[in-house]
Design goal:
Number of domains: 1
Helix content: 25-40%
Number of helices: 4
Strand order of the largest sheet: 1-2
Order of helices and strands: HEEEEHEEHH
Largest sheet: 2 strands, antiparallel
Radius of gyration: 14 Å
Bound molecules: zinc ion
Number of strands: 6
Shape: globular
Distance between the termini: 24 Å
Structural class: alpha+beta
Length: 128
C-alpha cells in the first residue's frame, strides 16, 4: 500500500515529515533530478520506503521517506527499482547513486528490497 501525498494543495495530507523531506530536496526527485513545476508550485511525492499501514507498518519518519517524482514513486512502490545498502539504484542501467541529503535507515532499505525488489532481482538474475 502506498500513501500518496500532494504538496500543500489537496489535503490527502499525511505528514509534515513528508513535506520536510521534499523541502530538503527542493521537490527534486532523488532518482532522476526531475523537478515538476506546476501553477501551484513545485510537485514531488513523499515515498515511504517501508510502506505505512498493514501488513508492513512502516513508520512515518524522515529516515523512511524519499522525495521522488511520480514516475519513480510508482517504479519504487512496484519494485521495478530498489536500493542497495550503499544507495545504488538497482533496476536502472549503471546503478547510479541515489541523491542523498538526509539520513535513511538501512533497515527500511533492505526491507523494501526484500519485499518489493523481486522484479529487479529477477531481471538481474542475482540475489544480494
Ligand atoms: Zn524521478
Amino acid at each position: 500500500m502506498c500513501v500518496w501525498e500532494v504538496n500543500g494543495l489537496a489535503s490527502i495530507g499525511y505528514s509534515d515529515k513528508s513535506r520536510r523531506v521534499k523541502e530538503i530536496y527542493d521537490y527534486t526527485c532523488q532518482v532522476c533530478g526531475t523537478r515538476l513545476e506546476t501553477p501551484a508550485g513545485p510537485y514531488a511525492e513523499g515515498a515511504h520506503i517501508k510502506p505505512l499501514g498493514t501488513p508492513h507498518n512502516g513508520p512515518d519518519i524522515e529516515a523512511n521517506i524519499l522525495c521522488l517524482c511520480p514516475n519513480h514513486h510508482v517504479l519504487f512502490d512496484d519494485g521495478a527499482i530498489a536500493l542497495t545498502d550503499d544507495f545504488g539504484l538497482l533496476g536502472i542501467p549503471g546503478e547510479p547513486q541515489l541523491v542523498l541529503r538526509h539520513e535513511i535507515f538501512l533497515d527500511f532499505v533492505s526491507y523494501h528490497r526484500e519485499h518489493f525488489g523481486v522484479l529487479v532481482k529477477r531481471a538481474k538474475g542475482t540475489f544480494w
